[in-house]
């Protein structure tokens, strides 16, 4: 057996998701049956201060020789980095990712990929020009649970998918939680709103079940009808969006298929944490697949067939295990002892692509990321939501 290849990561930004991702990244891949690669962190950078980067490295348990940088400029110059993980607010992804690509770095960039499709296209073109790897970090696509759901669909057990209902909504009280309007969830300067932050997961479920499961040669973009509710206090951010999609398909493949993707900051997919509400329903003539919330980190599925078959599955995330004294979670939330968050699956895919010489993610290539950005552009167009020019522009560089 050949020795595992080690991918050396640089972490750009030190906020909430950067912490969760980095802790997961450092879990031994063997704990999830992955033996061909390993991950290490060689540097982290904070735009605020070097000391913040130092603290981040300590808090996430990075190797003691990992470098702390007080600017992103220093990070991208580090010759020891194979791949940069970008974890800034989505308003900044375009400028940050372009900056990394220009410096010759491979990039895994948090969702939403960019503010709009034009920016996503410009990044894809730059990656191609520089022959670099570029992937949107839609971690859910790489979960074994998602692979299982897609396999169920392509195996034909529920028949051709006719309809997908997908919700990702959080019962937040935005006026209370984000009362100064500066938080990235509601701040127009940071491309705030439900659609780009949460709705991307509703669309992820629609696309990975209805679009990605079709042969590449027959996939066609959907028609989109949308309603968007603006968030009162900051005006230019949505607090709720509802999207109806029609996916054209040939009669032999089942004909047109419909989807409804919803998202809201204010109402919940699962009121009072009720995990029994299937936030995702994938329906065909022979039955349906239910995926239980949260849509971004589901751990339970149910297959219900017309003939009475019911197959329920639990998909807890692997990790160092009970007794390890290791914990992960997001923004103060804590998973069970030794249970990973699930962000390592996308990291494994990015690392594997580097080893294999691929330039895009296996379960969501750049064309699909761009198409989803186009859908979100259309939702914003119909809903009358635009962001400040400095974050919508494809001009580079722009100081944000
Ligand atoms: N995959 C997931 O489950 C998941 C979950 C949450 C968020 N996300 C995505 O990850 C990204 C970051 O989210 P987060 O929750 O980690 O946000 P966060 O806690 O606010 O962290 C964002 C970090 O970006 C850096 N930054 C640079 N310029 C900034 C600016 N003008 N304003 C604010 N921060 C700035 C800061 O790090 P430095 O000071 O160190 O530079 C900051 O700590 C978003 O695109 C979000 O959609 C993904």
Name the descriptors.
six-stranded parallel β-sheet, 400 residues, 22% strand, eight-stranded mixed β-sheet, Dihydrodipicolinate Reductase, domain 2, binds NADP nicotinamide-adenine-dinucleotide phosphate, Rossmann fold, alpha/beta, 14 strands
Describe it.
It is a single chain. The longest helix has 18 residues, at 194-211. The protein has an eight-stranded mixed sheet with strand order 8-9-10-7-11-12-13-14, with helices on one face. Strands 3-2-1-4-5-6 form a six-stranded parallel sheet, with helices on both faces. The chain contains eleven helices and 14 strands. A hairpin with a 2-residue loop joins strand 11 and strand 12. It is 30% helix and 22% strand. The mean pLDDT is 97. The chain is α/β, with parallel strands linked by helices and 400 residues long. It folds into two domains: 5-139, NAD(P)-binding Rossmann-like Domain (Rossmann fold, 3-Layer(aba) Sandwich), CATH 3.40.50; 144-314, Dihydrodipicolinate Reductase, domain 2, CATH 3.30.360. The chain has helices spanning 16-25, 50-60, 72-77, 93-102, 117-130, 144-154, 174-177, 194-211, 344-356, 366-383, 389-392, and strands at residues 5-12, 37-45, 67-69, 83-86, 106-110, 134-137, 163-169, 223-230, 238-247, 257-264, 280-284, 287-291, 300-305, 310-314. It binds NADP nicotinamide-adenine-dinucleotide phosphate. Residues 36-135 form the Gfo/Idh/MocA-like oxidoreductase N-terminal domain. Residues 1-18 form the signal peptide. It catalyses: D-xylose + NADP(+) = D-xylono-1,5-lactone + NADPH + H(+). GO terms for molecular function: D-xylose 1-dehydrogenase (NADP+) activity; nucleotide binding. Keywords: Oxidoreductase, Signal.
